[in-house]
Amino acid sequence: MQSIVGQVPGFVGATGAFDLTFLLVLIPAVSAAVLLLGGRRTNAWGHLLGCAAPIASFAIGLVLFFGLLGKNTNDRQVDQHLFSWVPAGSFHVSVSVLIDPLSAVFVLLITGVGSLIHIYSVGYMAHDPDRRRFFGELNLFVAAMLLLVLADNFLLLYVGWEGVGLASYLLIGFWSYKPTAAVAAKKAFLVNRVGDLGLSLAIMLMFTTFGSVSFRDVFDTASSAHRGTVTAIGLLLLLGACGKSAQFPLQSWLLDAMEGPTPVSALIHAATMVTAGVYLIARSHPIYDVSNDARVLVEIVGAVTLVMGAIIGCAYDDIKKVLAASTMSQIGYMMLAVGLGPGAYAIGILHLLTHGFFKANMFLGAGSVMHGMNDEVNMRRYGGLRKVMPVTFWTFAAGYLAIIGFPLTSGFFSKDKIIEAALDKGGPEGWVLGLLALAGAGLTAFYMSRLMIMTFFGNRRWAKDVHPHESPSVMTSPMVVLAVGSLVAGGLLVLGGSLQHFLTPSVGGSVEVGVHTIAPGVLTALTLVVIAGGVAAAWWLVARKPVPVEQPLNVTPVTWAARRSLYGDALNESVFMRPGAYLTRALVFFDGRGVDGAVNGFAAMVGGTSARARRSQTGFARSYALSMLAGATVVMAALMIARVG
Amino acid sequence: MDVTSSSNFPWVTVLALLPLIGTLGIMLTPRESHDTVKRVALGTSLVTLAGTVAMCLEYKTNGARFQFVQSYDWIKAFGVHYAVGVDGIALVLILMTAVLTPVIILASWHEAEDGKRGVRTFFALLLATEAIILGVFGSLDVFLFYVLFEAMLIPIYFLIGSYGGPRRSYAAVKFLLYSLAGGLLMLVAVIALFVVSAHRLKHGTFDYRALLAGDLHIGHGEQVALFLGFFIAFAIKAPLWPFHTWLPDAAAEAPTGVAVMLVGVLDKVGTFGFLRFCIPLFPWAARELAPYILGLCVTGILYGALLAIGQRDMKRLVAYSSVSHFGFIALGIFAFTTQGGSGATLYMVNHAFSTGALFLVVGFLASRRGSRMIDDFGGAAKVAPWLGAAVLVAGLSALSLPGLSTFVSEFLVLVGTFTVHRWFAVVAIFGIVLAAVYVLWMVQRTIHGPVREGIETFRDLGSREAWVIAPVLAVIVVLGIYPKPLLDAINPAVKHTFSTVRPHDPAPSVPVTLGGPR
Question: Would you say B92 and B138 are in contact if contact means Cβ atoms under 8 Å apart?
Fold first, then answer.
């Protein structure tokens, strides 16, 4: 077995094309500033600039990517120092960007999928009076997300981390005049703040332990630190990852986040931002390589969330919320993968990339459906859309095949490998995780088939004034590109282990386990059987009879709970919000009566009655002058005494 | 005359005199010529700002500890000097004061018209306040500091009492009584300090540098008593929990500009006092009492934030959020680490702009609606998008969003505390979640949501308002990205300040150089 613990090859200083790395972040940031500060003057061409920015970053990203390929494997970590940011004693953080295989694939995902979604938004938001602001905020997101993945230290990563949170807040609340959107935006930010506690404490603990917060210093020395400290850092980072990636127990915000415009759901809440937690864990792999306990907890969080999300996805009728629950579940798979440790990090990233394609694809498809259906999201009001929206249907179908893991589509390669890697862990750990992942595959097949059937097949249950139509080509073209990606990206990325090899300098190489728990061929067959079972079950339960327009109420307790997202909100409400409200009210009362009352009593004592005090403030000025005089006298007297003494 | 720096231009005296000249100028203009008065006030504050910038450019971050020093005997018999000069901490606070004063004056353009003492007095008092505050930050004599510290009360008392909201008299008197109580304690301590110096140094002195250099070796019991005398006065001024209850009333009743002056600028004298006097002069007491003070700070951070969540009046909300923020500042100071101290000093500057911005936008909202109550608002961003954006950015700076200036200082305070008092930092950090609650909840209820009745006629930011808020927000953004110039000035001063309580920051447990393979 190849040891990768503590092995972090040195970073190389940026030269040549790599001097452009900072432009990746700067271009969308400047574009965002222009669009947000430029006001109405930029309305006419704002969306064009908004699209140009991520495309420009994508082009630079490609140049850097091929630049990396042209280097020796060990030189593929290029660091560009920009300026010293926070110097305070031994705490010294600089603004520096690191381009390495891991950040490079993220750059391409963010700017590539990001560009497509920007283009799609030109059509989707065409009638919105605030389209320019939308593009400004979307550019802000791209800049922050690129900063997140390019930072070469944890504090700068944290800036990107909260920057994407801000963009997410702004975009969930884009239609902030809708109370539901305003509440959902706030909720997303607050839940993420709880996760951020973990990330900030982790950074502080790193500084206390290593005297540095840069990736290189922390990762170089992780293995020589006290094991318990490393575990604590790992758990705190995981808390941060749970918030950003909507993993249990901080998952509750993601379903509400669907209040945002659909391109936002596709880019931020499916393809990129919500996968930042997975990035954080993969990036911090030297921590998890040292601390087995922290690593195991990552696995558990992933496995629990993947099942939870899948169960929730089976019950909702809102097409976006089904996709959101599915995102939770799929990120659970990625978490599980990166929690499996050395060798599996690359598999997690592979699933992250393929998911970026197929989930963005399906969200854009859902947006296209909504566009044609007067923004209806209830799948019980859909049906038979296959005929009227053929492009949407076929592109969506590509995403569908990919997510359920149909042979040779993208998801087939990535998900299968996660199940395999989980089982290969061996022992009870391997069996439990592997079987949960397998069960998740079946559930995924079920809820996605249910979505497909309810939306595109069966009888037309449209509301009276709805006349569905295919979307304009500015929207469908990005969908077609993503559909192709959904089908072939996975295959290309695993061809000859290409992604795995490429990522080795960042996350360590593959680990050859001599014995598989279940032979890969058998496992693939088994997985396919489970998936087929899920599809069949969906057909049996949904497709055989007309879908009722009203949600049926005589359902099992499990469905009931799943419709309430497994009581995540109810828990938050009763454990945090209500007691918090009582505490706040009690303190407000106490501050007015207790602390302040004592002082007012004192004031009344000094100045006679407080009523008199209110009447004659000039009197107070006079007595103030008097007291100053008295004070001065006391000073003089004391000085005399002191001199005499 | 004593010269300890390469430049001996009397910057502090000049800068403190400039606003005073403006005050005189204003008193000489005719009572009715409001516009002249305002222009003179604004012009004076801008000239003072220009002077301050010049001083900062001339300041050498690696130079002497105190620069631009002037020292003359004032009351020779009692060792009182007119001694002024700045270290890096005083420098950035003076800069902060000079930058905010023009903003405050412009923000107060129409505030004074209904006040009972007239427009002229209002602006004269504002400039006088600036002059005194510049003097306080610049003084290097304990007695001079004390006199100016007490003198600050007078203009603010009249500004609140004569130009404030409906409960202005109550608020002004409460502010005065609280401050007087603290001032008296400090007076006692100041006198006692002189007595001690007379004993130890043969000749009694109030000269701060002489007191520092004299190595007083004050007895432990005396140190604690003296420390507390100064500390309580500063804790009231700052204000620290549980000495805070005057602040919400004073800040809520004060006119917007005065609230910014009071909470943003003047209250920093309290936290400045901790650094200037409490720690270097009474190091033993500071070390002994620090854990208790840290306890007060952490309590205040959470208490202030929870109270802010519970407020229905926006101005009171901002005031309570400041109680929480002052807890952070004091936390960083009494952690005695470079990160904590530098972070706290930077926090003082950043808080002035952040809270200033919040008071300003709340003032904009209140002036349109004629109410400060959150319940009277809703949907303002829909009808007035620029105003909405200003409210949002001000709010984000209050919750210390990374990328904005407040994040840098708050993180430094927390990391500086964490390295020496882990659990205090862990509890304090919950303040950042609560900050998100009070900010975002207010944002949701005031500018988001459906447009409420009485809001639909809101006009967007006017050009004067834009000129008021834009520089403040710009500072918040710029200092978030590039705080280095300020930190470079602050760091050496903080190191000097803590040299007696903790000469060296704790070393990391696994230094990088001893780490794994390179």
Answer: no
How do strand B67-75 and strand A91-99 relate by DSSP bridges? Answer: unpaired
State whether A634 and B187 contact (CB < 8 Å): yes
> Do the beta carbons of residue A195 and residue A239 sit within 8 Å?
yes
| Long-range contacts from A455-458, C-beta under 8 angstroms, 24+ separation | A455/A319, A455/A369, A455/A379, A455/A382, A455/A383, A455/A385, A455/A396, A456/A382, A456/A384, A456/A385, A456/A386, A456/A393, A456/A396, A456/A397, A457/A383, A457/A384, A457/A386, A457/A543, A458/A383, A458/A384, A458/A543, A458/A546, A458/A547
Phi, psi (degrees; rounded to nearest 5) at B458 = -55, 130
Q: B-contacting residues of A 163-182, CB under 8 Å?
A: 163, 166, 169, 173, 176-179, 182
Q: Is the pLDDT of residue A645 over 60?
A: no
Q: What is the pLDDT of residues A259-279, one digit of tens each?
A: 889 999 989 888 899 999 999
C-alpha to C-alpha distance for B166 and B442, rounded to whole angstroms: 23
Within 8 A of B512 by CB-CB distance, chain A residues are: 210-212, 217, 220-221
Report the alpha-carbon distance of residue A557 to residue A546 in Å, rounded. Answer: 23
Cα separations in angstroms, B76 against A240, A377, B197, B203, B232: 62, 84, 15, 11, 29
| pLDDT mean across residues, chain A | 85
What is the predicted pLDDT for the residue at A381?
Answer: 85
pLDDT at position A27, please? 94
CA atoms in the 13 A half-sphere facing the CB of A544: 7
Contact between A194 and B303 using a beta-carbon 8 Å cutoff:
no
Report DSSP state, residue A472. Answer: P
Residues in contact with B163: Cβ distance below 8 Å, sequence separation at least 6, in sequence order: B111, B112, B115, B116, B117, B122, B254, B255, B258
Cα separations (Å) of A534 from A260, A290, B207?
30, 39, 84
Chain A stretch 566-625, residues whose beta carbon is closer than 8 A to a beta carbon of chain B: 580, 583-585, 587-588, 591, 595-596, 599-600, 602-603, 606-607, 610, 613-614, 617, 620-621, 624
Taking an 8 Å cut-off on Cβ atoms, the answer to whether B339 and A88 are in contact is yes
Distances (CA, A) of A607 to A604, A611, B186: 5, 10, 21
Q: Do B433 and A194 touch (CB under 8 A)?
A: yes
Question: Is the preceding peptide bond at A249 cis, omega within 30 degrees of 0?
Answer: yes
The full DSSP string for A310-325 is HHHHHH--BHHHHHHH
Are B63 and B171 contacting, i.e. CB atoms less than 8 angstroms apart?
Answer: no
- Write the pLDDT tens digit of every residue in B469-491: 999 999 999 999 999 999 999 99
| Nearest-5° Cα angle at B218, B217 to B224 | 140
Q: Could you say which of B416, B495, B516 has the minimum Cβ distance to residue A221?
A: B516
User: What DSSP line would sit under A322-342, residue for residue?
Assistant: HHHHHHHHHHHHHHHHHHT-T
Distance of alpha carbon A260 from alpha carbon A282, whole angstroms? 28
Q: Per-residue confidence at A634, pLDDT binned at 50, 70, 90?
A: low
Q: Which residue has the higher pLDDT, B123 or B200?
A: B123
The residue to which tokens 């500042």 are assigned: B329
Q: Pairing state of beta strands A78-88 and A91-99?
A: antiparallel
CB contact under 8 A, B337 and A89: yes
Sheet with A78-88, strands from edge to edge, namely A12-13, A78-88, A91-99
Number of H helices, E strands in chain A: 28, 3
Whether the Cβ atoms of residue B208 and residue B142 lie closer than 8 Å to each other: yes
Q: Which residue has the tokens 């400290």?
A: A229
Q: State residue A621 phi and psi, 5-degree precision.
A: -60, -40
Euclidean distance between CA atoms B416 and B514, whole angstroms: 23
Q: How far is Cα B165 from Cα B363, in angstroms, rounded to an integer? A: 12
